[in-house]
Amino acid sequence: MFTRKNNQLTPKCRSLFVSEDREGSYRIKETMVYICSPYSGDVRRNIEAARRYCRFAVEAGYIPFAPHLFFPQFMDDHILEERDLALSFGESFMDNCSEVWVFGNRISPGMSAELKAAIRKRLTIRFFPSDCLEDFNANQKGVLT
User: Fold this and answer.
1) For the segment 85-106, what is each residue's pLDDT rounded down to a tens digit?
2) 24 is in which domain, residue-wise?
3) Alpha helix (H) ranges present in the chain?
């Protein structure tokens, strides 16, 4: 539960909540989205971007899950077995998400594996370039082929 501060919610946060109870608390929507964006390469920059993408999802009223912000906290992406295990864990989390949101202007090998899993699970996939404006023509550009 989230309790209002000074009896008000900011307009950006208001869309996150679906109902208010008698104590003035709000229930958060239970719509999770899987954030798919590059991690490897310029890791520091990619982490900053992933945080921005998660914030974008929150402001749009969704609960984001970005496995590449979570698993590297205790797993080593440079050890192949741990990387593969982290991708497997991410795919398990994906089962709880209603959509996969793909961000950035390139598809990394890890993202490709995540997209294949999303297609196999028949999840809705949405594409956003780095500026977070949805790209409705991504499928026509051959991104998923």
Assistant:
1) 999 999 999 999 999 999 988 8
2) 1-29
3) 11-14, 43-59, 67-70, 80-94, 109-120
